[in-house]
Amino acid sequence: MGAAMARGIIDHDGLNRDDIRRLREARTPDDLPFDLGKISHVVLKVADLERSVRFYTEVLGLRVSDAYPESMMPGRMVFLRCNDDHHGVALVGGAREDSKSKELHHFAFEVGSLDEVFHAREHLQRHGVALDFQGRRRAGQQFALEFQDPDGHRLEICWGMDRIKPHESSRPAEKWREAFSLEDAVRDAPPGQDTSLADRSLLKVG
Fold it and tell me: Are 106 and 92 within one domain?
């Protein structure tokens, strides 16, 4: 018996179900003296600060709130916002190479409607931004567009993620509806997700 088999049952796609079960069963204490409300901001190292500021403002629509000169932050620093918070993304210049996504896999921006996801797809394509993925992801069941910034940081624009209250359970895997286009994600909706569009002309034919 191999070491993997000794640790638990291996299913048909090579996953150790006991390992996954233990990860899912991690529990959060009820008596923590604080309550994290949201992810506040992310700070990225970039090679060309001006290039990255243009991408995040002109392509993604963030607005510059503040900037630090070299004397305050080696490489300089620009703070950008996508809502009323002072900043949700900050960029620091001086990266020596493109991102290899070794630590930060990706981060996501949420939009307010499904129509906006479709508009974002057209907008990104007009700006020559290649999409790595479009459709619906599995866990969370959000509509998603995935792409990269000029330094190779992986980004997502999403809508419709499942909401879970503190002591509720997440949607079971048998109710996931993975899709590899926005159109397929609209046609095959998971229970409880409203995929109606205000503008049906946004759907691509064929």
Answer: no
